[in-house]
Write a structure and sequence with these properties.
It is built from seven helices and five strands, in the order H-H-H-E-H-E-H-E-H-E-E-H. The protein has about 210 residues and is an alpha/beta fold. The strands form two sheets. The chain has a three-stranded parallel β-sheet with strand order 1-2-3. The protein has a two-stranded antiparallel ribbon with strand order 4-5. Bound molecules: iron/sulfur cluster.
């Protein structure tokens, strides 16, 4: 965030005071702190993860965004980078990890597979996009996306954070937004527990 974005417009600070004081809002200060220290959870699912690893090398310098510290624990992370094919077998673990991350937390779907199933969309073992289970903030297209594309997605996430307000963010509110996502069950197929009633009705119809 540049100094111009940080300072509230309409307040002209005298030239000699510019390096000493700044006038801003609590929202801007709070967002600046969060957007400059987004720590991604360190895990990958398939080929896209290789590009994610490449993006964290010195050549691309993730430290510019304060995002170079990939954490091995969900409890220390605030960004889930879903990089790769989301199989039904992996979804329960991904949702559990997401639930274990503290708010505020964000999700980036990296690549065609994580965004919509990609080349395996109709596969019997593949979920057609992680957004079937988690609230995705940014989609990064490509198969695989380049490290530059991922960086662009990270910048878009920062822009999204910049627009948030303490008055409206979900982690300070009570209600359905703050409820944990039920971990899906993997049996003969993947069962989304949020759809239990619907599944029961369909099963009852089949018995009739
Ligand atoms: S989007 Fe392409 S590169 Fe990424 S995990 Fe799927 S198949 Fe691999």
């Amino acid at each position: 965030m540049s100094e111009n974005d940080f300072t509230l417009p309409g307040y002209d600070i005298p030239e000699e005071m510019k390096n000493t004081i700044n006038i801003t809002s609590l929202d801007r200060l709070y967002n600046w702190g969060r957007r400059s220290s987004v720590w991604p959870l360190m895990f990958g699912l398939a080929c896209c993860a290789i590009e994610m690893i490449a993006a964290s090398t010195a050549r691309y310098d993730l430290a510019r965004f304060g995002m170079e510290i990939m954490r091995p624990s969900p409890r220390q992370s605030d960004l889930m980078l879903v990089a790769g094919t989301v199989t039904k077998k992996m979804v329960p673990m991904i949702v559990r990890l997401y639930n274990q991350m503290p708010e505020p937390k964000y999700v980036i779907a990296m690549g065609a597979c994580a965004s919509g199933g990609g080349p395996f969309k109709e596969g019997y073992n593949v979920v057609a996009g992680i957004d079937k289970f988690l609230p995705v903030d940014v989609y990064v297209p490509g198969c695989p996306p380049t490290p530059q594309a991922l960086l662009y997605g990270l910048i878009k996430l920062q822009e999204k954070i910049d627009k948030q307000s303490l008055k409206h963010v979900r982690w300070y509110r009570k209600g359905p937004d703050s409820v944990e996502i039920p971990v899906p069950l993997l049996g003969p197929d993947l069962i989304d527990l949020r759809r239990t009633e619907e599944i029961k009705k369909i099963a009852a119809r089949k018995v009739e």
